[in-house]
Amino acid sequence: MFEIKALSSSPAICAQLCEIIIEVVANGGSVSFMHPLEPERAQAFWSASLAAADRGERIVLGAFDGELLVGSVTLLLDCPPNQPHRGEIAKMMTRLRYRQRGIAASLLRHAEALAIERGRSLLVLDTAVDEGASGLYEKLGYTYAGTIPDYALKPHGGLTGTMLYWKRLGA
To answer: pTM score, two decimals?
Structure first.
């Protein structure tokens, strides 16, 4: 069983998040970065993300196997004033050797529960058409809203579309 908890700024956590995102990008994961992802760029991203979490603008969740961080997802909470009911799921990542064990689904369910606690009734997310996690999101009740063609570059080059999803939370 994996322990899921909110992450805060620490050099050890930041280092493990950097390991995961570099591994995911190297293996084609579309999480906003190109391969090769330089450690300094990953460090800058996670330092800023964890600082935003410390300010309450987002929640970065981690799944642990003992002391090893094996997966992560971010719940973005800092939405415009006309969207206080909404949150966004971002940076869903699992170490390759830990995939297909239910970690991503557990992280997502935990993020949904935290969103409800914070008064969010709608979550949105996107995933790449090529090698994205659309099957996971659909299995967990997210509704497909459409695809934007040629939305982003794949980590190793070439364009891919982005699939948009949403889910109502609570009653």
So the answer is: 0.97
